[in-house]
Amino acid sequence: MHECVPRIRGFTYIGILFALAFVGFAMAAVGVMWSTAAKREREQQLLWSGDQVRRAIASFYTNGPPGVREYPRDLAELIEDRRGPVLRRHLRRLYADPMTGRPDWQLIRLPDTAIIGVASRSGGKPLKHAGFSDADASFENSDCYCDWRFVYLPALGRVIPVGR
């Protein structure tokens, strides 16, 4: 009877090792799922924040002094538009780029330095490749977030997608 005891102890040790390995793999899988979910959330936030800036540029352009149609020269003008007798706020605050975590948007400018849009500075590869709104249709099959360009062009008074 005493001869069986050492063999049982060996199997218990191996069983514990397998259990620890299984727990490790499970934790890694949960980590990957959490990371993917967090990235999807940041993508949604990027689409929302970029659209807010684009809409603010459109509002700045269309709501200037009578007869004046101009783009902002600086994003701060979207927060405090002092072109008229009354202060206008086209944007509550300058949102951070969710992919970088900083308000360091890449500015898309006309040759005269007027800002017509923004894009993320992130070179990360998007998870989302389809199912965008009409305004963001050019984002489909993009290779990086920097290709998601939130631009306002006044043709017909609506948001126009700008290609890569």
Q: What keywords describe this structure?
A:
three-stranded antiparallel sheet, 164 residues, 38% helix, mainly alpha, elongated
Radius of gyration, taken over Cα atoms and rounded to an integer in Å: 26 Å
Placed side by side, the strands forming the largest sheet appear as 1-2-3
What's the average pLDDT?
86
> What class would the helix/strand composition place it in?
mainly alpha
Number of domains: 1
How many helices? 2
Show the helix and strand layout.
Layout: H1 5-62, H2 76-79, E1 106-109, E2 115-119, E3 149-151
Could you characterize what this model shows?
The chain has 164 residues and is mainly α. The protein has one domain (5-157). Helix content is 38%, strand content 7%. It is built from two helices and three strands, in the order ααβββ. It has helices at residues 5-62, 76-79; strands at residues 106-109, 115-119, 149-151. The chain has a three-stranded antiparallel beta sheet. The radius of gyration is 26 Å and the shape is elongated. The chain starts with a helix and ends in a 13-residue tail after the last strand. The mean pLDDT is 86.
